[in-house]
Each structure stands twice: as structure tokens, then as C-alpha cells.
Amino acid sequence: MGVGTDGAIAVVVEIAGSTLVALGLGLLIAALVIRLIYGAWTRTQAIAFQHEGHAYLRWHDHRYRIVEALWSSGRRRATTSPIPAPRRPGEEVTIFYHAREPTQWTLEKPYRGTRLLAVVGLGLAALGTLVGFLPG
Predict the structure, then answer these.
(1) Fewer beta carbons below 10 Å: N end or C end of the chain?
(2) CB distance 44 to 60 below 8 Å
(3) Could you tell me the pTM of the whole model?
């Protein structure tokens, strides 16, 4: 009777470990795909300025070219959220710009949540691997 119970426990442990590893790897791959779809974004400091009555930002891209963009052209997560008020001329602003298209910029971190997704995925995969080493 004891042999059957030990075998059932071993099967449950094996299924649980395999499921955790598969789920963890799936989350890691999802985080990687999200990063690849969004492309490379770079954090930098921009200077606010006014030209002909419009608010602009100016910064250097990763190739040290000067990039200027209209304040209202920044990306927002939700299209219903209002555009934040422009900064005063001469004020520094932390922005994130797209490496392939430096005029695409945002005030918010573009990868919000993907790091957590990757960490949870890595944790689940490691836990599933450790469960596989349990005596059973």
C-alpha cells in the first residue's frame, strides 16, 4: 500500500515541477517578446523650450544628434489621459525616446511591468526545477 502512495506523490511532484518550469519559461518568453516588439528605448534628459508660442523638448540621441520634438507629440499609455502641462523653458525633463525613431518619446517608462514579468517567470522556472529534485 505504501508503494502506490509514494508513486502517486512522485507523479504529482513531477507534474507540479514541469508545470512550474513551463509557466516560468512562458512568462520569460512573453517578457522578451514584449521588449522586442517595443524596440529599444533610451532614458535621457531633455530641455524644455518655446518656439513661436509652442512648447518643445530638445535632447541628444544615442548618436549625439540633437533631436527636437513638440511637447504635445509625446506618447501616453491611455489616449484618454490628458497631456501633462509643458515644463517651463530651460527646465530639464527625464524622457524615454525610441532608438530607431528618436522623435518618438514618452515621459513614462515604456517597459513598465515586463521586468516583473521576467522576474516572476525566472522564479517559477527555478522553483519548478528545484521541485524536480525533491525526493519522491
Answers:
(1) N
(2) yes
(3) 0.64
Output DSSP code: residue 3.
H
Q: Phi/psi class of residue 72: alpha, beta or left (left: φ > 0; alpha: ψ in -120 to 50)?
A: alpha
Give me the residues paired with residue 46 across strands.
93
Q: Which residues of 53-68 are buried (b: 16+ CB within 10 A; e: fewer)?
A: eebbbebebeeeeebe
Contact indicator for 99, 40 with CB cutoff of 8 Å = yes
Whole-angstrom Cα distance, residue 129 to residue 51?
Answer: 59
Among all chains, which residue has been given the C-alpha cell 507629440? Answer: 73
DSSP string, 32-81: HHHHHHH--EEEEEEEEEEETTEEEEEEE-TTS-EEEEEGGG-B-SSTTS
Cell of 82: 490628458
DSSP state of 135: -
